[in-house]
Specification:
Blueprint: E1 2-8, E2 11-16, E3 26-36, H1 38-45, E4 60-68, E5 80-83, E6 86-87, H2 93-96, E7 107-108, E8 120-124, E9 128-130, H3 137-140, H4 143-155, E10 163-167, H5 171-183, E11 186-191, H6 194-202, E12 206-209, H7 214-221, E13 227-232, H8 237-246, E14 247-255, H9 270-274, E15 278-281, H10 289-297, E16 308-311, H11 315-324, E17 332-335
Bound molecules: zinc ion (2 copies).
One zinc ion binds next to helix 2.
C-alpha cells in the first residue's frame, strides 16, 4: 500500500509499505482523510519524545471499515468511521476510572504504532466512531482536534452562561474557542501573535490583546471580577502563572498547554482558598468523539473552512514547508482520493 513514512528526523518519503493486518479485537480501516497535527510536525522535526523511527504518522483518521481481526466486531464493512487514536491498557487506575487518556501505558495510533498517512491502518475495533452522513471525509478528520476542545470544555464545566478566556490561539486554543462558542458561552481569546488572534476572531472569539496589560484589560471587561473560566493553551509557564490572577473567585482554570518536562511554575498560594478556585488539567480526550462529530455535523465548527487539502504524495513537500514556517498554513488534511 502507499504510505508516507518518517524514516528519521527531517526525512519523510512515499513508500510501498506492507498491508497491515488487524490483530485480535482490531479493525482494518481504509483511510479516506488524514489530518496533519502539530504532533506529526514534531515527529518530522525530531521533537516528539514518544516516537521511534521508522513510523507512519497521523492520528486524525477518517475512513471506511474493511475487515476485523479475530474477535473484533463493530460496524459493517464499508461503514464510514473515524478512529479514536488513544489506546489505554484497560487495567491501570486511570483506565479503571474511565480516563484512558492518561493511561500509564498509553499507546497512540500514529505515534506508538502505525498511523493514517497510508492507504490502510489498524486500530482496536472499540476505538471506532460512526461518521454522520452529512459529514464528508475531510471534515470528519477534524473529530480528533475538536474532541480536544470538547474535553477541555467538559473539564471546565463550560455552560452557555459562562464567559471563557482562552489563552493561546494555536490549534488547541482554537479547538477550545470553537467548542466553547458552540456550547453558547461568551468566548474571549488572547495571543501574542496578532495574526493568530485574528484567526480566533474569525472563528467567533472576542479578541483581547496579549502581553503586558492583559490582566487590566480582563478586569475591565469583567467589571473587576475576573473570568469565570480560564483555559490555558499556550504551554508557556508565564501564561500558566497568570491564570490565577485572571480567573474570577469561584471560577475554574483548565490547563491544556504543555510546559517542558521538569519545569516548575509559581502560583500565589493564598488565592487557592481566597478565590476557592478549581484548577484542572486536560489531556487529549476520552470518549469525546461522538460529541465532536455531532458538533461538526451541526455546522457550528468552522475550523475545517480554514484548512488546506492535499494528496498524500504531497506529504514530503508539506512537512518541509511547515518545518520552515509553521504559520505557512492553518491546518493540512491529506485526502487519499482527492476530488
Ligand atoms: Zn491531533
Ligand atoms: Zn491504563
Amino acid at each position: 500500500m502507499r504510505a508516507a513514512l518518517f524514516d528519521a528526523p527531517l526525512a519523510i518519503r512515499m513508500v510501498d509499505a506492507p498491508m497491515p493486518r488487524p490483530g485480535s479485537g482490531e479493525v482494518l480501516v481504509k483511510v479516506a482523510a488524514a489530518g496533519l497535527c502539530v504532533g506529526d510536525l514534531y515527529i518530522y522535526t525530531g521533537k516528539n519524545p514518544y516516537v521511534s523511527y521508522p513510523r507512519i504518522g497521523c492520528h486524525e483518521i477518517a475512513g471506511r471499515v474493511v475487515s476485523y481481526g479475530e474477535g473484533g466486531n463493530g460496524p459493517a464493512p464499508g461503514t464510514r468511521v473515524v478512529v479514536d487514536p488513544f489506546i489505554g491498557c484497560g487495567t491501570c487506575y486511570p483506565c479503571r476510572i474511565g480516563k484512558r487518556n492518561c493511561c500509564a501505558k498509553l499507546a497512540i495510533v500514529g505515534i506508538h504504532r502505525e498511523g493514517g498517512f497510508a492507504e490502510y491502518v489498524t486500530a482496536p475495533a472499540k476505538n471506532l466512531n460512526l461518521v454522520p452522513d452529512v459529514l464528508d471525509d475531510f471534515t470528519a478528520a477534524f473529530a480528533e482536534p475538536v474532541a480536544i476542545g470538547v474535553q477541555g470544555c467538559r473539564r471546565g464545566m463550560v455552560t452557555a452562561e459562562d464567559s471563557v478566556l482562552v489563552l493561546g490561539a494555536g490549534p488547541i486554543g482554537l479547538a477550545v474557542v470553537e467548542v466553547a462558542r458552540a456550547i453558547g458561552a461568551k468566548v474571549y481569546a488572547t495571543d501574542l501573535s496578532t495574526e493568530r488572534l485574528a484567526i480566533a476572531a474569525r472563528l467567533g472569539a472576542i479578541p483581547v490583546a496579549g502581553g503586558e496589560g492583559l490582566l487590566d484589560r480582563v478586569l475591565e471587561l469583567t467589571k473587576g471580577e475576573g473570568m469565570p473560566v480560564v483555559m490555558e493553551a499556550t504551554g508557556a509557564a508565564s501564561a500558566m502563572e497568570q491564570t490565577l490572577d485572571l480567573v474570577a473567585a469561584g471560577g475554574r482554570i483548565v490547563i491544556l498547554g504543555l510546559v517542558k518536562r521538569g519545569l516548575g511554575i509559581t502560583l500565589p498560594g493564598l488565592d487557592f482558598t481566597r478565590k476557592e478556585v478549581t484548577i484542572l488539567g486536560s489531556r487529549a480526550s476520552v470518549d469525546c468523539f461522538p460529541v465532536a462529530l455531532s458538533l461538526l455535523a451541526s455546522g457550528r465548527i468552522q475550523y475545517p473552512s480554514i484548512a488546506s487539502r492535499f494528496k498524500l504524495e504531497d506529504a514530503p513537500t508539506v512537512f518541509a514547508q511547515l518545518a520552515e514556517n509553521p504559520m505557512a498554513m492553518h491546518k493540512a488534511v491529506f485526502l487519499m482520493e482527492p476530488k
